[in-house]
Specification:
Helices cover about 40% and strands about 15% of the residues. The chain contains 13 helices and 9 strands.
Length: about 325
């Protein structure tokens, strides 16, 4: 049952140190927010209106977020990036947060096209794109479908706690869908004590505020959006095209990730030429909340890198 409810939801030394800090921060401290900046909308070719937040100056970073949450999941990372001199663009994926769905509905291809249209509309150049979970699938889809745009506008990719294909079998997918559509589960999620239901997507000792924020964003996402996205996530496979991604890529995985287990990160690192794999011991699926310092370091390193990094594997 724990697995079913879970479905609801630069150096090794530097990585290890940041991970230790994150584990010790399993307290009730408030989550960081991104001060100031500008809010705007991007209209996609199928009529969706995507809510966008832009803040800071310096090298550009674009942060697509995960399924059934919103751009706020990236706030701990974005706040540090802005403070350290980066231009950070976050947006709510279609149907999530303040964004509308559009006529094409949900699909990995459509999510990838949305990212393309965000970059084109905002005239983004020389960007690092760091996508988490669904955001990482979005990033892979974009890179595969729009290689010319990637060459023109993207410096590097980070694929964070994600997968290149459907992560559950068809029978388990049917169970997952029933769980998500269950009024009983919905009531328990919305109850004041519903946060433990999302605890399984985190690793060791997550910040309590992050667990609550995950629950709150999940229940705020309309059920039809959750189910529509879930259907798309259960019916895709980008592995045959991974070899076409030639942009410098870092794949980041938590060793305790129950939603997109580390084997998927290893598959992406094998499939993408020259990809670097970083595995974080003790971390779960919600890496932007669990280890923001690690991600900031990796993003900053990618933004500053002059030449593609050689293929390497790191763990911490």
């Amino acid at each position: 049952m724990r697995r079913r409810t879970a479905l609801l939801g630069l150096s090794a030394a530097a990585v290890a140190g940041a991970a230790i800090v994150a584990r010790r921060r399993g307290d009730d401290s408030p989550l960081p927010t991104v001060e100031g900046g500008e809010r705007t909308k991007v209209e996609t070719s199928d009529g969706a209106l995507l809510a966008v937040h832009i803040a800071g100056e310096g090298p550009t970073v674009v942060l697509p977020h995960c399924w059934a949450l919103n751009m706020d999941v990236w706030a701990p990372v974005a706040a540090k990036l802005v403070a350290s001199g980066h231009h950070v663009i976050r947006y709510d994926q279609r149907g999530h947060g303040e964004s509308t769905t559009g006529n094409d509905g949900f699909g990995i291809e459509r999510f990838g096209d949305d990212l393309h249209e965000v970059l084109e509309t905002l005239d983004v150049r020389d960007a690092v794109i760091a996508g988490h979970s669904l955001g990482g699938m979005t990033t892979q889809s974009f890179a595969i479908r729009h290689p010319d745009v990637v060459r023109e506008r993207v410096r590097a990719l980070l694929l964070v706690g994600t997968a290149p294909a459907a992560v559950v079998s068809a029978p388990l997918a049917r169970v997952t869908r029933r769980v998500l559509a269950s009024p009983t589960v919905e009531r328990r999620m919305r109850a004041p004590g519903g946060s433990p239901l999302v605890r399984g997507v985190f690793g060791a000792r997550p910040p309590r505020a992050a667990v609550r924020a995950t629950r709150d964003a999940f229940v705020a996402t309309p059920l039809d959006v959750r189910l529509g996205c879930l259907d798309s996530l259960l019916n895709f496979d980008l592995r045959p095209q991974l070899h076409t991604i030639t942009t410098p890529t870092t794949v980041v995985s938590g060793s305790r990730d129950t939603l997109t287990p580390p084997r998927w990160s290893r598959a992406m690192a094998r499939g993408i030429p020259g990809a670097r794999l970083v595995t974080l011991k003790g971390a779960g699926h919600m890496l932007p909340y669990e280890v923001p310092e690690v991600l900031v370091d990796l993003i900053s390193e990618a933004a500053a890198r002059e030449e593609p990094a050689p293929n390497q594997v790191a763990s911490a």
